[in-house]
Amino acid sequence: MSPTPPDADELEAVIAFVAAEARKYLDTVEDRPVPDRQAEDAAASFEGTLPEDGVGAVAALQELIEGGGGLVHSAGPRFFHFVNGGTTPAALGADWLTSTWDQNPGAWVATPLGGHLESVALGWLKELFGLPQSWGGILTTGATMANFTALACARRWWGLRQGVDVDVEGLGGLPRMPVFGSGYVHPSDTKALAMLGLGRDAVRKLAVDGIGRLDLAALERELEALGETPAIVIASAGEVNAGDFDPLAAMADLAERYGAWLHVDGAFGLFAALSGRSRHLVEGVERADSVIADGHKWLNVPYDCGFAFVKDAALQAPIFTSGAAYLPDPLGPKPTWGFLGPEMSRRARAFTVWATLRAYGQSGYRAIVEKHLDLAQHLARRVDEEPNLERLADVTLNIVCFRYRPPGYSEDRLDELNRRIGEEAILDGRVFFGMTEYDGKVAFRPAAVNWRNRPEDVDLIVDVVLELGARFR
Ligand SMILES: Cc1ncc(COP(=O)(O)O)c(C=O)c1O
To answer: Whole-model pTM above 0.70?
Structure first.
């Protein structure tokens, strides 16, 4: 075979092919079984060694699409597991342009548009969430890297309070950084602490019950006992099993009284700020020192996108700066985003964030959030009406935590039955809601954040659980 290097002449065929295939996909995504039945086999079909000669662009894409018979259609309306958002039409279009333009907003000179739109997008997001415009921030790959960024700022602050620049000198010689939170602290925060050299088990979880609700009195005792020693408090705005919130305002009171750093992980829950019906849940968030959220969840932009906001913007640059003669001047007048967050070269995520906010505005996003609040209440009502279903938690936001519970079953057998229903539901494919453990019980916790979700999709969750439950009883 003759060699097949990239050729600009292929682009016309590639664009036509991809546009037609994307259209076919998007026209059918609402009707497909959520995981393709052959998902595992299709994934496994991509094997073999690196070919010496290529097949050309369209043929390679064709192979990818055929293997794409192995997709899980989480972009569609019936995927309720994890907290996976969809992609708005504006975000999808902007994301295609982002790849087409291939800009690198790590350095301003490489893309003034990408660099500037990151400032604009972050400003709009602060407005959306009610955070002060004076705060710093950055777009990240997701909530985990946003937590990493924010907690790196917390670590710097904590070191400086003890006269140590940890970003220059490291952590050697310092005591362990005290970190507190409720039982709701997300594993992404502990992962970030691990990556920061602070240790995965750094967080003291102060909970009043097996669910994980914060023991506020214990938090006060711990902070008081530390005296002048600075500490970090992690608040969870939106817990993943039932969508509950830590009491942010009360935690902000304690953080202010005892001089602690308050970090709020609001990966999806920060969007409660968008509606008057849920805003009370994030009351006090503007008094935190750092706040994060995800873009690929409730903002409905494609993977990957998250945001970190930091009250003291001056903390970012000394942590993330980097220098070499060919790189930008870190002290230059324009933001060098590659020196304000963990990645140097980076995707121009601002195009997508800006485009979707420009397309739908505050009212469009309020409508998305309120639709999910309504869907969650609708699902809760359906669960409550069914004698064989048991709701396990109040519905605070967009998650409904429940299980199948026919009469006469012991707890052990209930766990086994619900696990079986959960596993079979994934194979069944009509709707995807996954499983969790809540208060020691195997449970379902569908979370609605995709703009495509409809009432009939959440009804299907109830129908499928009842049908499979009756089959396995
Ligand atoms: C509260 C919370 N924090 C952090 C994360 C991690 O987000 P990502 O997967 O975008 O890194 C999640 C993901 O579900 C989350 O719900």
So the answer is: yes
* Dihedral angle over CA of 139, 141, 146, 149, nearest 10: -80
> What is the sign of the dihedral through the CA atoms of 389, 392, 394 and 398?
negative
Which distant-in-sequence residues (6+ apart) come within 8 Å of 72 by Cβ?
Answer: 34, 35, 36, 39, 79, 432
Give the span between the Cα atoms of 436 and 424, in whole angstroms.
15
Record the tokens describing residue 324, joined without a space.
Answer: 């070499």
Is omega for the bond preceding 457 within 30 degrees of 0, making it cis? no
* One-letter identity of residue 186: H
> φ, ψ for residue 291 (rounded to 5)?
-145, 140
Cα–Cα dist 459/290, whole Å: 38
Ligand 1 pocket check: which of 145, 195, 294, 303 to mutate, most ligand atoms within 8 Å of Cβ? 294
Atom of ligand 1 nearest to the CA of 147: 4
Please give the number of the atom of ligand 1 that sits closest to the Cα of 240. 16
**pLDDT tens-digit readout, 211-241:** 999 999 999 999 999 999 999 999 999 999 9
Q: How far is CA 260 from CA 30, 160, 313, 406, in A?
A: 47, 13, 17, 48
Ligand 1 site residues (CB inside 6 A) read 82-83, 142-144, 186, 188, 238, 240, 265, 267-268, 294, 306
Residue 308 host element (H or E)? strand 306-310
